[in-house]
């Protein structure tokens, strides 16, 4: 498999970190690339402040690229599965907290390929990270067991982001900050029931930890409210990647409406918007025929009929995690102090898709970017 530029950059950084200083021509031979490619890589890394470059050589920064040259300020590494959609806000919160603490945040993206997470983290360490914020790129239920051991053996302090490992595992002993998706799902179900609807139909992804938590939270919410699911959950898929699967999901939801369902909870926003558009083409009106609550609240406010949505506190997750990591690095939270599992509660933002005329629970953020092909969380 051809090596990516990011992987080559990580190898280059590790070589310079190990030797302190190296000629670019020597690095070309060690990396197995042309001198032109090595020079361009060195220039790109120097422009980011990861290397010092002088007269054909590169060297490891004396102060580890700390803003303002402060040698006591930490460099934080962040591994995220995506820099768009849901995780854009998590990253923004972490960046703001790091900057406020006088630290520098460097980022690697796994693109939801958990088998590459460890290599990305090695790149962060090679780039000078003294502590790590880690959101593994898990997608399947078995991924935590298959790829969940290495974060517990990291040589630097680490905080998990938006991931809840199984109790009793090594990963469960790390600091972590995450959203309580079970609580968020309960908010949605309780809201719909409070409006006079029966148990909503669940339309949900199954390709991310958030999706799996929403599914589990839905069952728990129905149990706590003494309700039975009107039917099995409908599997949601991206319309762009699987048009036939998407159409089948919409048709299943139409059939549920024909059988008496009056409400639905849909994960995620992009799917919800596209489902509502297709429902209208098939003669099912929102909210007249079906009340809809979306989960994530990234772009729900931008739908033709603004969607009521559960809003996990994504930015605050990033902010609290970075603050905790800085504490660990500066000794404010000693190694012998208890690890922390901080769980933040989502909010419900009420809009027109459940019959409300205006928002009544805060203003949703519509500024985060998203990618239709990987809008997971």
TrEMBL record:
Q: Which keywords are on file for this protein?
A: DNA-binding, Transcription, Transcription regulation
Q: What Pfam families is this protein classified in?
A: HTH_DeoR, Peripla_BP_3
Q: Where is the HTH deoR-type domain?
A: 5-60
Q: Does the keyword tRNA processing apply?
A: no
Asked whether the keyword DNA-binding is assigned, the reply is yes
Q: Where is the composition biased (Low complexity)?
A: 356-369
Q: Which InterPro entries match?
A: DeoR_HTH, LacI/GalR-like_sensor, Peripla_BP_I, WH-like_DNA-bd_sf, WH_DNA-bd_sf
Where in this protein does the record put region Disordered? 356-377
**Which positions make up the signal peptide?**
none
Q: What is this protein called?
A: Substrate-binding domain-containing protein
Annotated source species = Streptomyces cremeus
Q: What taxonomic lineage is listed for the species of origin?
A: Bacteria, Bacillati, Actinomycetota, Actinomycetes, Kitasatosporales
